[in-house]
């Protein structure tokens, strides 16, 4: 398996190759420039880099795609984070009068981390994941994606695999980028159903009436629950986990519940107002968000196409059309794609370069196309194309306004 | 806004016009001459009213019967309007003027603004609830809140969803009332609590619920106004009659915030374990225990507990040693600690970044912001724990059964975890220093709030220390037994 070939010690050798040949700079710039609709949008964006030996540098900013490329190729960051668009160029923030340097806009983001599900998964804990608990991410993505699109009206969502144990969502609509802190926190709370820390046993409480959002979310959970909880997680297979389930049930119907649990349920035999079977399903499966990640306009989040130093995996965008078959262990590692590049080079030598030159123009060779990274970049392109249609509209509108003057 | 330069004197019947509406957005500042004594009285009394609003908001559900009754009482006592009627004209004038004076005092910092806006919004909400439907509609139109109503067809199509989105909406509501389509950014409170139907970025609000929208509008307007006021402050401060009063007003509400470290270095690290049993409030004790058990705390817990320790007198060096020695016992090695966690501890002490010397969290802040989630140990156990679990914990800490049931009903008189610590140490035999610390805030409270408010505060503090004395005695004996 290709993934087992990754060794963190080889990063210093692999990163230069990655940033010189494989990182999709033109798509990356196309994204963050947002069609050039707003002035200085790219120039005022904060990036932060984690370099070798855990050296962390904030307030990096770049004026052009070229400058971004050169700097990244020079620094070879281990990790890249994307921050907000500020009022001034972040790399000049020290020259700005105190108090006037402010974060203005940023994508609305969500971070789903598998560690937050440790109290309800039996197969793994902490930073580990496996195909059995990955279903939790699938459920989370389906629920949140639907809600963000249908309830909130957002259209341009980029889901990204974090590289180890979770997923991120970048909501890139203009309205999302302009949201205030209060608005972001309201959106995150609307999407939250799991309440309580270590001290809370029953983390989901449903009361009448059941909001349409909860109904829709339940429909998703119910689709996955039988296979996930009863087979993969086997919550009835061991005494401790049965006890855990039972601790969430009100005492007077315990016996009925036991019988119910024996057969695959889904018929509401419970009294009206008692939603414990729904609450249990939600507690086991509903997405757990970190509200603090979504709240802050200036919050820094791992960049798509960044490498995860511990696993070597590239943070790739997830194509929702193929969500049910997405396998985090099939995501390419940096060592894999570098290896694929070398292999192709040996096979092709100079032939492809010459044929391109024969066409009479300087065509840039997109090396990533020779690797497993290709399909992810292609999907990213499609995402950008969809957004570009809205930028076009914006630019036309703006130029119209100018003509009126 | 200039108080003394305008020479016009308004006639009484203009007052009737100005103050005909019982509720206002405070869009226009008062234009009349105001005597300095009135200036001071009005401001101080409004401050008392807002403080009551704050305290009631923590102890009772807003707009519940007890809440409104008590606020009615306070409004009456302080001579503020709380009902509609012609006799209210003088009170509305006072309300108008006092609001603008407090704007001057509370526009200066982010914290002051946030506090002022929160209490004014709560006060507005309470008063708005007394308006009739007709009056509410009038208010909407007068203040230019135009939101579109959806068609009857659309209402019918969405009927089930609308009914299921809100406890207060029935089939009849949908038939009888207009529903407005409002962009979700204008109705954040309803979105946050999921009390409304949301589709494609719009919330669908029945006429009866339009109050939340109005509150948001009020909040936004006030926020902008405060920003503007802050810019004209230098002109106001140049008037020497006003400056001392305004400063006094804005400091009075804060009270003791434990930001200035006293007793630095008087606590040694070895004492912390035993102190946590004797003199830490439950939230901090919980955090300390979780830290000892797991050799780790998440960010929320590190902030709440770390700042508390700073407040009781730990120095930066001690704090670094304390956290480091504990984290090393867990999964973090010394190097990683120095790189990742040491920075944030120095940040807490104001030695990094924008160099803000962060203040330890008050109870209000702990309860209301950043609720704990999976893996967290911070927050307030009296707010954030399961009642059953909390009972168990208190039993474990040997609080008497009557004490436990009392905890469920208690009116909140304790304001700050560090206050608990200081009081507890005092009760256990602290020295004169600590007593002097407690006296100073009492005095400033007495100066700003005369008569009943000060007496009530003193009584509350006495209650708190008695309650604390009981609890600490129990805890003490527990430790001695162990």
How does this model look, in words?
The complex is a heterodimer of chains A (405) and B (482). Chain A has helices at residues 11-22, 25-33, 65-75, 131-151, 174-177, 181-190, 212-232, 239-246, 254-262, 276-285, 291-295, 334-348, 351-358, 374-404; strands spanning 45-50, 56-60, 79-86, 103-105, 108-113, 157-161, 166-171, 301-302. In chain A, the strands form two sheets. In chain A, strands 1, 2, 3, 4 and 8 form a five-stranded antiparallel beta sheet that branches. In chain A, strands 5-7-6 form a three-stranded antiparallel beta sheet. In chain A, helix 1 (11-22) crosses helix 12, helix 4 packs antiparallel against helix 7 (212-232) and helix 7 packs across helix 10. Chain A is built from 14 helices and eight strands. Mean pLDDT of chain A is 86; it is low at 263-273 and 350-361. The longest helix of chain A has 31 residues, at 374-404. Chain B has 482 residues and is mainly α. Chain B contains 24 helices and four strands. Chain B has helices spanning 12-18, 36-59, 65-77, 89-106, 110-128, 133-142, 152-165, 171-176, 188-192, 211-231, 233-237, 243-252, 272-278, 282-294, 299-312, 316-328, 334-348, 363-368, 381-384, 387-396, 401-409, 417-427, 432-448, 452-481; strands at 148-149, 179-183, 197-199, 202-206. Chain B has a four-stranded antiparallel beta sheet with strand order 1-2-4-3, covered by helices on one side. In chain B, a hairpin with a 2-residue loop joins strand 3 and strand 4. The longest helix of chain B is centred in the last third of the chain and has 30 residues, at 452-481. The chains are: A alpha+beta (405), B mainly alpha (482). The A-B interface holds A 54, 115-119, 150-154, 175, 179-180, 182-183, 185-187, 189-190, 194-203, 208-215, 288, 290-292 and B 161, 163-167, 184-185, 188-189, 191-194, 197-202, 286, 290, 299, 339-340, 370-379, 381, 384-386, 388-390.
